[in-house]
Every structure is written in C-alpha cells, then in structure tokens.
Amino acid sequence: MKIAIVHEWWAKNGGAEEVVTQISYLYPEADVWCLYVDKDAKSRKIQGKEIYETWLRFVPFHENRKIAALLSPLVYRTISLKRYDLVIVSSHTFAHWTRFPRSYATKYLCYVYTPARALWMPEIDTRGSILSTTKLGKLLRTIDRYSSRRVDAFAAISNEVEKRIDEFWMRSSTLIYPPVNLEEIYSYVPKRESSNFFSGRDYLVTAGRFVEYKRHTFVIQLAKRMDLPILIMGSGPQRTEIQNLAEDIGVEFMLLVSPDRHTWLNGLANAKAMIFPGIEDFGITPIEAIGLGTPVFALGKGGALDYIQNGVNGQLIERNDVESYREAILNFSSSKDDIRYSVAKFSTYNFKKSFQNWVSESGCINER
Fold it and tell me: Which of 74, 134, 215, 349 could bridge to 277 as Cys pair (CB 3.0-4.6 Å)?
C-alpha cells in the first residue's frame, strides 16, 4: 500500500510537526509532504527520509504565512502526480484540500487541529478579520466546506475542534488527543536556577507564539496586579508590543525568544502558575506545565476544557478579567503529584494507539 502524509508548512518545532513525526513512526513507508520546510527547521528529514516540498517553495516570499495560506488551496490541488492508496492529512488551514491523482480506491483521512481560524473565527483570530467580511472570504468558506466532503474521515484534537468541524463543515469526527511527551516530562528534574529566574522568587509564566489571540499582554497586566515578575517564552510578530507593554507599566519580566528545551521546561516547572487566557484549539504547553507540577489557570472555553480539572491542576476561569485570575491563583492549593499525574492520559503511547484504531476503523489498514 502506498501512503502519503501531508502537512501544512513545516515549522521550526511546533506541536503539529511532532504529531506528523509520530504518525510517520506508525507508517514508516509513507512519503511525507508539506507546503515547504521552514528555513529555521531543525531538519528536512523524518527517520532519514527527505520531506517532500510542494512547488510553493519556488514562489518568492513563500515563507510569509499570509502568502502561503492564500496560495495553499491551489498548491494542495496540484500537489503532485504521484498516486497513493491512503492519504493522511494534518490540517490547520487548508491541507484537507489536498488532491493527488485519484483512483476510486484512494482514501483520505484528515487529522484536524482546527478549521482555519482566520477564515471561520475572525473574532478569535483577528488576522483574518478583513478577509472574513469580503466576498472572497465567503467564497473561501463555501469551497472549504465543499472540500471537506471529499475527506473520508476526520479526527479532531479536542472536543472544541470536534464542535467546529460539525458547525463549519457539517461533518462528524473522532476525538484523538495529540501526543505529549510525558515520558520526558515525568523524568525531568527541574533546577531552581536563581541566576536565571528572578532569584528564586515566585513568578508567573506565559508561553507560546507571540500573536494577539494568545493574550500575552493580558498576562502582563495580571502580573502587574499581583506584583509578581513574569517569564514570557515564545516567538512571533507581537514581540515588540509585548516587551514595550511590560516596560511601560513597570512589570519585572524576562522575555526568552525560542529558548532551548531545558530552559523551556525549567521555566514552566519553577513557575507559581501558568496563565492560558486565550480560546485555544488544545494546548500542548499547558499540559507540559501540569506534567511538571505547575498549575494552569485558563479561560473556561476551548481546548482547556479537556484537561483542566478545577482545584486539582488549576482552574477554569469564567470571567476573563484580571481579578478573577488573581483570586483563583491566590486560593489554589494542590500537591505537586496530584497536579502532575492528572494529565497522564495525554501520552504519546495513547495517541499512537488511538490513531491506529481510527485508521483501522476507517477501513484503510488492518492494524490488528
């Protein structure tokens, strides 16, 4: 059987790339395709095999995400002349539009991080707010829904994404949580490095891509209200705005751009609390923080509903204001062990088992 795995752009070290890597371990004979490999990616190979890139890599400025997203529907429909029996798609924008030369026997399965937020949910992801109100936006939503009908089966990363698939594409899906490397997390021994993290004092942490819907600026305001320093880890276009706000309102902060893995885990492990105030698809980083014994305080919407247990590993906040978060943090009390092992089900092992079952039940490969 000829198998292809298709992904969006191959970023530096994202959670979606880890998902594709784990899928490739399940099907080592598969060809792996992506729009293009980011110039800062750690490797252009998986298991020693080259990642195939589409013709988009020859387009000037293709690494601009807006250009890539706008061109990707055409790219996916003209991806290659190769033929496959099974195509496994990893999608957060338009990868589910993928079409190889099709035979009647070709099966398309799609693992969905979210339908394109900028297209369907501009109130959450404002990067698409202008496009969504235009005739082009309406046309793209119509084509997006139509393209979803050509997929044989969907899987979603969270209950939130399951609901979006049902609402936007009018399709059912199977819930399969993405893999979190809990083996690494549970074996990690954090170091209280006073020279690195605020001389051993309590601090808040926020981590992830520096974009508006992640609401890092809100966490800075919370840190100011609680008179606590804040560790900010990640990368992205909002970096200057985040840094300027922290300086302007007088918050003690440390901003780490793309820190190494040890620093990332140590920063999460030693924090008093991680703050996660956006409406998210899921959230690998909060689960890492919980696995390290750090409680997470998140908005009571979106993917956080799948793993935050009130009073056990954090708190779901109903009112998205500074005082509600402050009160929840001050009143929280739970043991490190209770926090850590509350997320044990989100392991890589469980992901692989669930994924194989889904493929088998979809009638593509007999895994038993």
Answer: 215
Q: Where are the alpha helices (DSSP H) in 153-256?
A: 159-164, 182-187, 216-226, 239-248
Write out the residue limits of the CATH 3.40.50.2000 domain(s) in the chain: 3-179+347-361, 182-344
Q: Alpha-carbon distance 183 to 319, whole Å?
A: 35
Distance CA 267, CA 256 (A): 10
SS3 state of residue 33: strand
Domain formed by 182-344, architecture: 3-Layer(aba) Sandwich (3.40)
With a cut of 60, say whether residue 368 has pLDDT above it. no
pLDDT digit string, tens, across residues 36-85: 888 776 677 887 888 999 999 898 888 787 788 778 888 988 888 889 99
CB 355 within 8 A of CB 332: no
- Domain 3-179+347-361 is found in CATH 3.40.1160.10: no
| Cβ atoms < 10 Å from Cβ of 18 | 17
pTM of the complete model? 0.91
The pLDDT tens digits for 90-113 are 999 999 999 888 666 889 999 999
Close Cβ partners of 356 (under 8 Å, ≥ 6 residues apart): 26, 367
- Tell me the three-class secondary structure of 302-324, residue by residue: HHHHHCCCECCCEEEECCCCHHH
Cα torsion angle, 41, 43, 44, 47, sign: negative
Give every CB contact of residue 55 below 8 A, 6+ residues apart in sequence: 75, 78
Average pLDDT over residues 309-321: 95
Q: Is the pLDDT of residue 277 over 80?
A: yes
**Beta-strand relationship, 49-50 and 45-46:** antiparallel
Radius of gyration of the chain (CA): 21
The residue among 114, 172, 179, 166 whose CA lies nearest residue 362 is: 172
Per cent of the chain over pLDDT 70 is 94
Residue 165 DSSP symbol: I
Q: How far apart are CA 24 and CA 76, in angstroms?
A: 20
